[in-house]
Write a structure and sequence with these properties.
By secondary structure, this protein is α/β, with parallel strands linked by helices. The chain is built from nine helices and eight strands. Belongs to the AB hydrolase superfamily. MenH family.
Length: 267
């Protein structure tokens, strides 16, 4: 379905009945990334959203409209439209940062939080400034070189090196989905919702009194270190490192990812 939310047309999918489970995709992703899990999560009411600038959701021309704060407001309005009062919220990478931000601002709505390869942002303004400059260059690259050249680059960054071992069919499907995105949408998402533009949430983690599952792949050393540090600050957190996976655990070890998520929700 398409929902007009604060002037932006959002693509939203709902499946099944039961406890609501909202899944948020990462940068260059879409709701389609979660389709393989619909059978595994059939006992829940699964809600999938193409985040702003991604998939079939609109891509505003102003990057400020894609900020983390604006995206949280959009999610809140979407949940109101869907009459969701309390729900489980899960997010991967960029979607994990958004899920964490939403949970910090609206903890009363979340029963459990699942963060895959996510972070609370960068700790210092110097780090954020450097990241903003890198994101600006990358955004310019998308606009000047086009989507295919950018996806060629994106698929070959070190963060996704472990995905080279995936079956060719899986890699082709990933690439096809990424190429369906809009150049303006991805460029503005980098500028508006990139880690450099996001406020640090490190000092807010100890206020989150809900169960949190922190997932990372063993081959993604950077985000495993972040997850370990987050675990020490979150009062009710569980940290699990998945063997044989890198940054995108749900892509590289889907069966294990689905089992762990189900076990956490039902625990």
């Amino acid at each position: 379905m398409m929902l007009t939310i604060r002037g932006v047309s959002y693509h939203v999918e709902t499946y099944g009945e039961g406890t609501p489970l909202v899944l948020l995709h990462g940068f260059t992703g879409s709701a389609e990334n979660w389709h393989p899990f619909l059978a595994m999560f059939s006992q829940y009411k699964v809600i999938l959203i193409d985040l702003i600038g991604h998939g079939q959701t609109n891509s505003p021309s102003e990057f400020e409209r894609c900020s983390m704060e604006e995206s949280v407001k959009d999610l809140h309005a979407i949940f109101a439209e869907l009459h969701l009062k309390n729900f489980i919220l899960a997010g991967y990478s960029m979607g994990g940062r958004l899920a964490l931000t939403y949970a910090v601002l609206h903890p009363e709505r979340i029963t459990k939080l699942i963060l895959e390869s996510a972070s609370p942002g960068l700790k210092t303004e110097a780090e954020r400034m450097n990241r903003r400059e890198n994101d600006r260059k990358l955004s310019q690259f998308i606009k000047e070189q086009g989507m295919e050249s950018f996806i060629d680059f994106w698929e070959n960054i070190s963060l996704f090196a472990s995905q080279k071992a995936l079956p060719e069919a899986v890699q082709k499907k990933q690439r096809s989905q990424r190429l369906e995105n809009d150049e303006t949408g991805l460029a503005n998402s980098l500028l508006g919702m990139g880690t450099g533009s996001q406020k640090s949430l490190w000092d807010s983690l100890d206020t989150l009194k809900i169960p949190v599952l922190l997932l990372c792949g063993e081959r993604d050393e950077k985000f495993c270190l972040i997850a370990k540090e987050m675990k020490d600050l979150l009062p009710l957190s569980t940290f699990i490192k998945i063997i044989g996976a890198g940054h995108a655990v749900h892509v590289e070890q889907p069966q294990i990812f689905g089992r762990i998520v189900n076990e956490f929700i039902n625990s």
